[in-house]
Amino acid sequence: MEELLIFGWLAWIFPIVGALLTPLLAKIGDKVRDYGAVFFSFMAVVSTVSLSSYLFKEHVEWPLHNSIVWLSVEGSPILSEIRAGILVDPLSIIMSNVVSIIAFLIMVYSLGYMKNEEGLTRYWFFMNLFIGNMLLLVFSDNLIQMLFGWEGVGLCSYGLIGFYYKDSKDGWKKYWVGEGDEAYPPSHAGLKAFIMTRFGDLLLFVGAFIILAFAGTLNFVELQNGAISRVPVWALLPAIIFFFGGPIGKSAQLPLMEWLPDAMAGPTTVSALIHAATMVKAGVYLVARMFPILYATKLASDSSTLVLMFYFIAWIGVLTSFVAGTQAMVSRELKKVLAYSTVSQIGYMMMALGIAGISVEFITGYVGSIFHLMSHALFKAALFLAAGSVIHATGSRFMYDMGGLKKYMPITFWCMAIASCSLAGVPILSGFWSKDMILEASLISGEYLLLFFALSTVIVTSFYTFRMIGLVFYGQSVKEQEHEHHLHEAPAIMWVPYAILVAGTLILGVGGYFVRHWLIESFEYLMVSLHGEYVGDLTAEYLISFLSVMCVIIGFVPAYIFYIRRSKSFDLSSKAFSSKIWTFLAKRWYINKLYYSLFVYPTVSISNWLYENLESRVVDGLNYYIASLAKQASVKIRKVQSGNFNDSLTLFLLGVFVAVIILCFIILG
User: Fold this and answer.
1) CA pair distance 84, 479, nearest whole angstrom
2) 302 three-class SS
3) What is the pLDDT of residues 355-381, one digit of tens each?
């Protein structure tokens, strides 16, 4: 049964080896380097797809586990040995295939999109290293090992977001991000992402150490088998809240969401890989990995206090979803709309996991979150890659510099339109099924206020999605850009990858009903171990489908009138009251401003004061004083060296005489 587990190791080893070999392959030639990088990402696909066969076997005793001794710490009061291992179950198999397949298609797309860019050796190195670290994170059987992958993707994210580190003003319209006083160059955006996610990781470490101190292990299997019960309830709740800080930071949830929209300063391929399909899903994956452990603890302790942690997760998710969606409504930048959308959709996934912990029928929310993770990864990666082709063709990241592109880029239009419909939740595409499953979980759990916010977000999502399509592909043609940039369809090496992703969205949508039930059956072992149930309520399903479709229509109608058909002019900033709303949303609810006011500007002021008063006056002054003393001493000592042979011989003999006297004292003493 465990003969294929070797692929769980190879899945992350292949791309990491590929990253390490990238500089060597670059010495041979650019094409060898480029295609070599793509090859190693393809080997990751081979490995993860090989593991997928387990999902179709009967009577598999999940989870499958394999480990080796990594470090032995004799006399340690907590961990006498640290093991490295892999954990293979439906969650890790599904997540790893999402990561590897989408990453491979993005790597193929990169062959065209990144052609002739500077620093490609660095680019391919970080891309493969990221893929390897993400798969290491997914397959790790313990939190210590997982953190290596967790921090690895954070490091790679920093390097790739700031890929255009020269911050050239010539790239203002292509790879800067934001406008006005919130316009940031790539290096600033990369550092911002690194610092904000590291703060979340610091909270994660605190939570993990609390669990380790009481449970004595951070192995997921051991925690699931009862070790977590050794953590008292009074310590577990704050531990989990701290622990959840890591997923909040990595998955860009409130209040640590502001780094992701600015991360669009990186290449579009980076946005598609790291900030749509994989890294930001790491937080969702970690919560889903810990869910059975925490749910079992809630059942065993029968404590209402532990229910609070699931409410905390659910409310963080739904509020993030709504806030980010409203920010996308007024954004002028194509990739930034998609970035806000990513934050919003991840909020849905977090909300579903929180609701699952509250409900007896947890499987609907749990599977709904995983289903939406799969669905979102496909259509959002397709949207980012298609957006990259649009920006590549027009030379601008602003949607108001676009318009009328439908006839110039028909393949990109249809791919982007279908993926956008899936994002909006149009039947019968994949986003419709997965999002409705999350809404259904809210309904059957009786969390009607959460459901209200979630349905409101459906309206908002529909509006900003079709607004984006209208601004980019409809309206007046950009004639001046036609001559300057020679508007045309993207080359096949670029459009084929996102066409494949759109095909996956269609297939997942057409078979959505069956995929839903297949996923429920795949996670049936959790229902057995956690004493859950799945009843299935057709009335709830039909009601949610009706409400969901109505919300999509409500959001679509104004977007169609004002941005697609353009029968009326629409400017939210034209009147006094609406102008305040527009400014509030355009300024990102002033959350970003608040962070800069509370942390960034004071830190800069303090550092400037320290530089001027401590560094320049004290440290530099002391260095200059010491250097001056050394200079004066050298001037005086230099006078001893007259250059006369007799003087030099006299000093030499005097030195020998002193050395002999010292030696005699040592011997006699």
Assistant:
1) 59
2) coil
3) 999 987 889 999 999 999 999 999 999
- The residue type of 559 is A
Q: Phi/psi at 380 (nearest 5 deg)?
A: -75, -35
Average pLDDT, the chain: 88
CB atoms within 10 A of CB 356: 27
Tokens in use for 9?
Answer: 């190791």
- How many C-beta atoms lie closer than 10 Å to residue 60's C-beta? 16
CA-atom Rg of the chain in angstroms: 29
- The better pLDDT of the pair 663, 576 is held by 663
DSSP per-residue letters across 389-424: HHHHHHS-SBGGG---TTTT-HHHHHHHHHHHHHHH
pLDDT tier, 568 (very low <50, low <70, confident <90, very high otherwise): low
Q: Looking at residue 470, what is its pLDDT?
A: 93
Give the residue among 103, 54, 55 at the shortest CA–CA distance from 277: 103
Are 220 and 143 in contact by the 8 Å Cβ rule? The answer is yes
Q: What does the alpha-carbon distance between residue 343 and residue 258 come to, in Å, rounded to a whole number?
A: 9
Residue 131 corresponds to which amino acid?
I
Neighbouring-strand partners of residue 142? 219
Q: Give residues with Cβ within 8 angstroms of 212, minimum separation 6.
A: 78, 79, 218
Closest among 502, 537, 533, 539 to 520, alpha carbons compared? 533
Residues in Cβ contact with 413 at an 8 Å cutoff, skipping those fewer than 6 apart: 405, 406, 473
Contact 394, 353 (CB under 8 A): no
- Read off the pTM: 0.89
Consecutive H or E run containing 65: strand 64-72
Q: Where are the alpha helices (DSSP H) in 74-164?
A: 90-113, 120-139, 143-161
Q: How far apart are CA 294 and CA 287, in angstroms?
A: 10
Say if residues 445 and 373 touch (Cβ distance below 8 Å). no
Q: Which of 429, 426, 502 is nearest to 461 (CA)?
A: 426
Nearest residue to 402 (alpha-carbon basis) of 331, 483, 468, 495:
468
DSSP state of 563: I
Asked if residues 401 and 481 have their Cβ atoms less than 8 Å apart, the reply is yes
Q: Which helix (H) or strand (E) holds 515?
A: helix 512-522
Q: CB-hemisphere CA count at 13 Å for 291?
A: 34
Distance CA 195, CA 200 (A): 9
Number of neighbours of residue 72 by Cβ within 10 angstroms: 11
Share of the chain above pLDDT 90, in %: 57
Window from 149-158, 593-602, 607-616 with minimum mean pLDDT: 607-616
The C-alpha angle with vertex 522 and arms to 510 and 440, in degrees rounded to 5, equals 60
CA dist 413 → 36, 344, 472, 528, 558 (Å): 31, 23, 9, 46, 21
* Cβ atoms 25, 32 nearer than 8 A: yes
Residue 111 has pLDDT above 70, yes or no: yes
Question: How far is C-alpha 560 from the geometric centre of its chain's CA atoms?
Answer: 32
CA distance 281 to 292: 18
Q: How far apart are CA 656 and CA 503, in angstroms?
A: 89
- How far is Cα 68 from Cα 198, in angstroms, rounded to an integer? 29
Nearest one of 606, 553, 535 to 425, comparing CA atoms: 553
Is 134 in contact with 101 (CB distance < 8 Å)? no
Q: CA 129 → CA 132, 483, 488, 565, distances in Å?
A: 5, 40, 33, 45
Largest CA distance in the chain: 112
Q: Which of 452, 201, 444, 178 is nearest to 315 (CA)?
A: 452
Reported as a single tens digit per residue, the pLDDT across 55-83 is 988 888 888 988 888 777 666 666 667 78
**pLDDT number for residue 311:** 93
